[in-house]
Amino acid sequence: MAVREFAERGADLELVGIQKRFPGFTAIQDLDLTIPAGSFFALLGPSGCGKTTTLRLVAGLEEPTQGRILIGGKDVTATRSHERPVNTVFQSYALFPHMSIIENVAFGLKRRRIGDPLGKAHEALRLVELDHLAQRRPQQLSGGQQQRVALARAIVNRPALLLLDEPLGALDLKLRRQMQLELKTIQEEVGLTFLHVTHDQEEAMTMADTVAVMNKGAIEQMGAPEVLYDLPRTVFVANFLGQSNLFTGAVAGATDTAITVDAAGSRIVVPKSRSARHNGTVTVGVRPEKVTLHAEAPADAPGRNVVGPGRVLDVSFSGVSTQYLVDIPGHDTVLVFAQNTGIGPSAGVGDEVWTSWLIEHGFGLADGPSDAERFPADDSTTSIAAQRRDDLVAELEEG
Amino acid sequence: MAFAAFSTAEAPTEQAPRKKSRIALFLLLPGIAYLVLFFLTPLVSLLLTSLQAPLEFGDIGQYQYAFNWQNYVDVMTTYWPHIVRSFGYALAATVFALLFSYPLAYFIGVKARRWPLLQSLMLVLVIAPFFISFLLRTLAWKQILSDESFVITSLKALSLLGPDAHFTGTPFAVIFGLTYNFIPFMTLPLYTTLERLDLRYLEAGSDLYANPFTVFRKVTLPLSMPGIVAGTLLTFIPAAGDYVNASRDFLGGPDTQMMGNVIEANFLVLLNYPAAAALSIILMAAILVLVGIYVKRSGTEDLL
Q: What residues does the ABC transporter domain cover (chain A) (predicted)?
């Protein structure tokens, strides 16, 4: 059943009990996921978390070991890649080197015998502002241009579901922003369903309506970017999506609305509604930009958690904000982002400081840092992204 | 206009290599000397021989330098069936070798990627025939396929062959021998191209609604063109000039003589050197023209 017509609109994507085992390891274990039609959905996770495998399963380039895949309510698990109303923007672009740009873009239309393939291909190229290069070969284009061609080659087919595999990885910051905006515009105009796979948390948060954070072949948490950021449920999410200060301790008391955790002598209060667990050992956290520094112990601070005293280990000034690293005995170093609304830094290296934050800014996690050891701290998204970008830039310069 | 961007960048760099060109020339000297001595000299000698005329009142095999263009007309009229046959057999052998080698090379270069040991083993098997002289191997085939051989007697017993049928001495046997002998020359270039084939292109083709056959036709095949062109040239050129397989001593018969056999006979038996030389020049020129057209038509200049 080759798809001979354009999709009227995006289609729902439903993954039911998907499992994918490769010889030697399990890439995805028991994944259930529903992506409503017309949404921009991002799968976010570190490399090797199973996100690209998920995408390849949806595209039909891999077969699930178990489970079913439904697109627009139709079970496509048994159908092959070329029979699915799905197009992919590949991470490597995979533009055919023996065809010109226009032939590349018209390829899918010709296979489906859609009328006026060249005209439509030119139109798609105009959308990504590359129509003037239609007769060139992919090798003659820059990485960014190739990426836009790959995008045009996919969207020209108006698939019910567009899969994006780290599509902006190789772009420099400016072009990246431009493409993000363009993608978003296309998505809104055409109303397609986008499934976007990325390890870049910023990209996922700025573009997607829904973000699913994936780790070790399973989805850890899913929701709107603001919700995920505001109320992470696991240590992994708290650290992968932005940064967090985490404190672990036993619950020392509880009221109707809040619990108090005794973390190495500091009493930290978290609203019950913002905590996944209410008894036993609980890990609580707070985002660095929510923390305030004090030069003196804040006496009588109702509604705030106070942790201190500690010593400032490092101060790094970055224009709009200053980042402080504070060493508080008994805790991990506490990270504080302070907006530079005053003049000069408010604390210097070696100064004795206290930290505090509003109780309603804290969150309680469902797991503890020991579980999170599986993901080393130096593997933060930004460093992965920077590493990858450097690799790609080096590769491009070599080629 | 597309290259306008490059010209400015290239202009300044042009100066530097010029200084080194003398050293480069010096380094090229042995190669040039070799080519002049062993390629150009025989070629000129062959060309001159092809225009020689028989010595007046001379013996058989005695010729003098002349501009006897008639030699070319004579050999063309006498030997045109051999010329046609040579290219016909070579073409058939090339097509069969390609049909046989492509799946083999695809398996070794693409499907067996996950098992490097199997890949190496199969490559060794492809190259293994080179360990024995092709003369011996062709003689072996003559034995295997002779009228008294097990293969032919069995086929006759099964009535798959008529009681009077032969295999050796037929065009089929010669084409078989040519195909067999040149299969490694076809397989290896195909393998090197297919081994580098980026499978992500095939996935992209499949993602863009192309069924497996269309992916092969539109993606795999064009991307393996360099290997196909190299393999077919390495097969066609030597096969067209081959005189072993078609020889009566090997797999051929009186009706299967190719240009190589005729050239050999003229040089060594009939002592008609001008005719042999003229035939050689014709063979060379014909191959040059055919290959030129082929490479141009296949559009692989930029892929090669």
A: 13-241
